[in-house]
């Protein structure tokens, strides 16, 4: 999966009631902390064992969260989304892309950032130049 919406069938609404440990999951992503290359969406990074999300069973690690209580998350910073979750109230309605064929586990494919590839290229070029230099000494 590449994190694009064309791999999903339809949106699914998941209603969770906040428990003693909150909603029971962690998130990653946002415009300032992209989790999936070229996608500023918000993704579930961890489902806590006995939390509300684990007890419900539909939300999975790697799922993209489209909205919370009707507020769209695309284009928001990570901090802004965390604040939305904190102030969402006791009952929270999440909208996530539906899974094709009823499968769960929509772990997005991670693609390396362009900067990382550039650094690898520079290091590779330096290694080649060092090799050529050592051969001529």
From TrEMBL:
It is found in: Mitochondrion outer membrane. GO terms for cellular component: mitochondrial outer membrane. Pfam families: PDZ. Residues 13-96 form the PDZ domain. Gene3D superfamilies: 2.30.42.10. Keywords: Membrane, Mitochondrion, Mitochondrion outer membrane, Transmembrane, Transmembrane helix. It comes from the Eukaryota. SUPFAM superfamilies: PDZ domain-like (SSF50156). The chain crosses the membrane at residues 114-133. Binds (via the PDZ domain) to isoform 2A of SYNJ2 (via the unique motif in the C-terminus). Interacts (via C-terminus) with RALBP1. Interacts (via PDZ domain) with ACVR2A (via C-terminus) and ACVR2B (via C-terminus). Forms a ternary complex with ACVR2A and RALBP1. Interacts with MAPK12. Interacts with DLL1; enhances DLL1 protein stability, and promotes notch signaling in endothelial cells. PANTHER family: MULTIPLE PDZ DOMAIN PROTEIN, PDZ DOMAIN-CONTAINING PROTEIN. This is Synaptojanin-2-binding protein. It comes from Amphilophus citrinellus.
